[in-house]
Amino acid sequence: MKLQHYLGGLEGLGRINFEKRVFVQPWEKRIFGIHVAMMALSQHLETAKVTPTKFKSVWTWANLRKLAEGMNPFDYFKYRYYEKWLGGISSFFIESGYVSTIELDAKTEIFLEKSNTSLPHNSKPEIDAQVIEYLRVGDSPKCNADIKPKFSVGDIVTIKNPLPTEHCKLPGYLRNKKGVVDVVYEGVYNYPLQTGDGVGDPMPIYSIKFDSHEIWGNLTEPKTWIYADIYEAYIENPI
Description:
Blueprint lengths: L25 H15 L5 H4 L11 H9 L3 H6 L2 H15 L5 H13 L11 H13 L4 E2 L12 E4 L18 E7 L3 E2 L15 E7 H5 L8 E7 L3 E2 L3
Antiparallel strand pairs: 1-4, 2-3, 2-7, 3-5, 5-6
Helix pairs in contact: 1-5, 1-7, 3-5
């Protein structure tokens, strides 16, 4: 389990940045655009499979998060939001064979030495149309699988404490905590990759209500509640 998943409720973490701008530096917009284009052209989409492009891989939010979280936790805290994206995307292209480390380093040196170097531009109407359509309709994780939820509204449940993995969808501060099922979301949902701790295949998702004292003791105000959406694989009946 990554250290960055255990930060909820911790004190003394230093100054909090309340930056509200979506993009602080101009280059961040390009990183966001690259990520969106990769999702729009991901080969798990039927429409993307017939789009004339050299990108023949599957790329989702899950892939981005897994690779970004793969860095050393202290580096994770050091870098800006889109710097983590850049690290995850770069690692993916290298590992997938689209570019070598040597080629990437050489290109980086060129732009570092001459910041006014023109960026590559090769617009293709078919690809542009696919990206725009993806931005319009999105990609829902909801599935048609006929899977009945194991828990009902009002059930008292315990959150599991799964073994450490490369990527996890469970906040660390909820592990081993008891809560009450507040909402059973309609249908089942698929996570785009196997996390190694039970999430990946289609399953129900629940909104679980926690007494804040169950999580953080007397550090919180009385009668305050925490709500978290949690995959069924992370939930069990209390012992």
